[in-house]
């Protein structure tokens, strides 16, 4: 397909529409003009025919003299003179002007009766010399004869000149509209050209640049605004990815460096079996932490790419919470932490069972991890106006108001000094937030330093 520029296409459209209208308009004028001209000829013919009929009725001599005069007459308009014929009621020729020689003015039998009954008959026909004739036939009632007068009409130069002028003007107008259309399209598309140049300068590394906006509130400005918004979103997303990659590599590097250093120190001299066991145990602990971080990173990367397919089904939250609480009791009891069930009721949601378990595990794991020994964790589940409401409350270390706005950020760990012995990757709550969002729910937190925290999740019931 021909790759036409928008400018050419616009100019073509403009010229086609303008040209089409011009041709239509020209044709209308031409036909109106031509019709008026024919009317004028017919009126002249009728007057002439009435005059001839009058002479014919007075005397045949004066009629012949008059016919001889008008058939020779060669004025500008009636250039070839007038052809005159008289027919009887049967259509037989009784008289014809000298310039007709042996030719006939056409008339068909069935029209004779109509004419004799008083009707005037007009006809356009070609004569033997190929000239276009306009012919009138009228009756002479007294003698029951027909008078025919024909004039040459194909030499109407006025109409031809008019048509010529109209065609020439039309051509000029169409050529003019082509160039005019191209000029207007160029002017209209100029801001787009400028926009292309500006966009070409924006590279992935310089996403901070934006398109220039103009005070005129036109479509181009609107497009620039939309592109600028898109660039902002792209910039954010690029920055997030960059930050995520940097944080991830940092998080993975640290435990690996610790493991490497531990193993190197261990190998630097010979140790007893107990020494080796200690290093292996701490390396295993680091490896566990590393594998959890990698697992969480994998989930978030999939979520970011929109590649995590939710397998939702109707599920009751009650047994799920009970089961997870039982599991966590195993790690809570050694710390003398009590896991207590408060108000619990059945609540059905449309959810991905695997993700819902992950959500609850992360939150309850946090509650155990950030609780003091002999602390208490309270779990509750209730229904509220079409929502299932899960609350996880602990009386642990709590989060400061400064940190609370960041705890859902990736790799963010509040109170690092105080939680140094807790080995978290800082990804658990980010995953919780994504899970809740993908289930069209909400997650909120209230916390007070040294007093404890309460995490509340709401999910739509079904
Ligand atoms: N129940 C809680 N009590 C006090 N602080 C909490 C609580 N839950 C989360 N936090 C704080 O929020 C931070 C982020 O929590 P998140 O679960 O995302 O990461 P993590 O527990 O450190 O690591 P991960 O869950 O990836 O193993 C924690 O490091 C902690 O400082
Ligand atoms: Mg956690």
Secondary-structure topology with pairs:
Blueprint: H1 6-58, H2 60-72, E1 82-87, E2 93-96, H3 109-116, E3 121-126, E4 132-140, E5 145-152, H4 157-201, H5 219-268, H6 273-304, E6 312-316, H7 317-332, E7 338-344, E8 348-352, H8 353-369, E9 376-384, E10 387-394, H9 401-404, H10 428-438, E11 442-448, E12 452-460
Parallel strand pairs: 7-9
Antiparallel strand pairs: 1-2, 1-5, 3-4, 4-5, 6-8, 9-10, 10-12, 11-12
Helix pairs in contact: 1-2, 1-4, 5-6, 6-10, 7-8, 8-10
The site of magnesium ion (MG) has 5 residues, from α8.
Structural description of this entry:
It is built from ten helices and twelve strands. By secondary structure, the chain is α+β, with helices and mostly antiparallel strands. It folds into three domains: 6-159, PAS domain (Beta-Lactamase, 2-Layer Sandwich), CATH 3.30.450; 219-304, Orthogonal Bundle (Helix Hairpins); 312-460, Heat Shock Protein 90 (2-Layer Sandwich). The strands form three sheets. It has a five-stranded antiparallel β-sheet with strand order 2-1-5-4-3. A five-stranded mixed β-sheet has the order 7-9-10-12-11, with helices on one face. A two-stranded antiparallel sheet has the order 6-8. Helix 1 packs antiparallel against helix 4 and helix 8 (353-369) packs antiparallel against helix 10 (428-438). The longest helix has 53 residues, at 6-58. It binds adenosine-5'-triphosphate and magnesium ion (MG). Magnesium ion binds at residues 362, 365-366, 424, 428.
């Amino acid at each position: 397909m021909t790759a036409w520029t928008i400018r050419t296409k616009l100019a073509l459209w403009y010229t086609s529409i303008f040209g089409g209208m011009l041709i239509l308009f020209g044709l209308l004028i031409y036909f109106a003009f031509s019709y008026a001209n024919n009317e004028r000829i017919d009126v002249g013919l009728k007057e002439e025919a009435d005059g001839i009929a009058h002479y014919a009725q007075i005397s045949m001599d004066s009629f012949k003299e008059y016919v001889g005069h008008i058939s020779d007459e060669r004025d500008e308009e009636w250039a070839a003179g007038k052809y005159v014929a008289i027919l009887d009621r049967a259509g037989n020729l009784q008289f014809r002007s000298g310039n007709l020689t042996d030719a006939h003015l056409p008339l068909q039998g069935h029209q004779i009766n109509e004419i004799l009954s008083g009707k005037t008959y007009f006809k356009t026909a070609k004569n033997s010399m190929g000239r276009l004739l306009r012919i009138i036939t009228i009756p002479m009632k007294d003698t029951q004869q027909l008078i025919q007068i024909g004039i040459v009409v194909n030499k109407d130069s006025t109409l031809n000149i008019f048509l010529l002028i109209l065609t020439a003007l039309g051509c000029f107008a169409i050529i003019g509209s082509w160039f005019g259309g191209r000029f207007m399209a160029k002017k209209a598309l100029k801001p787009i050209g400028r926009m292309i140049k500006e966009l070409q300068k924006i590279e992935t590394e310089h996403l901070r640049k934006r398109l220039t906006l103009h005070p005129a509130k036109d479509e181009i400005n609107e497009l620039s605004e939309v592109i600028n918004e898109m660039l902002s979103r792209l910039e954010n997303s690029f920055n997030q990815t960059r930050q995520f990659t940097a944080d991830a590599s940092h998080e993975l590097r640290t435990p690996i460096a610790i493991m490497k250093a531990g193993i190197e120190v261990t190998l630097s001299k010979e140790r007893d079996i107990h020494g080796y066991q200690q290093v292996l145990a701490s390396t295993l602990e680091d490896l566990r932490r590393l594998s959890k971080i990698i697992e969480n990173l994998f989930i978030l990367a999939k979520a970011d790419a929109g590649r995590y397919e939710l397998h939702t089904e109707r599920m009751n939250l009650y047994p799920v919470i009970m089961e997870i609480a039982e599991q966590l009791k195993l790690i809570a009891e050694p710390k003398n932490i009590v896991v207590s069930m408060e108000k619990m009721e059945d609540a059905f949601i449309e959810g991905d069972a695997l993700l819902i378990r992950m959500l609850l595990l992360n939150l309850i794991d946090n509650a155990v991890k950030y609780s003091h020994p002999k602390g208490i964790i309270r779990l509750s589940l209730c229904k509220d106006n079409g929502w299932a409401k899960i609350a996880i409350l602990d009386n642990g270390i709590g989060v400061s108001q400064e940190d609370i706005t960041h705890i859902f950020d990736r790799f963010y760990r509040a109170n690092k000094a105080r939680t140094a012995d807790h080995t978290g990757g800082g990804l658990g709550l980010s995953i919780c937030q994504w899970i809740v969002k993908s289930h069209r729910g909400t997650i909120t937190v209230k916390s007070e330093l040294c007093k404890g925290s309460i995490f509340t999740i709401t999910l739509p019931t079904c």
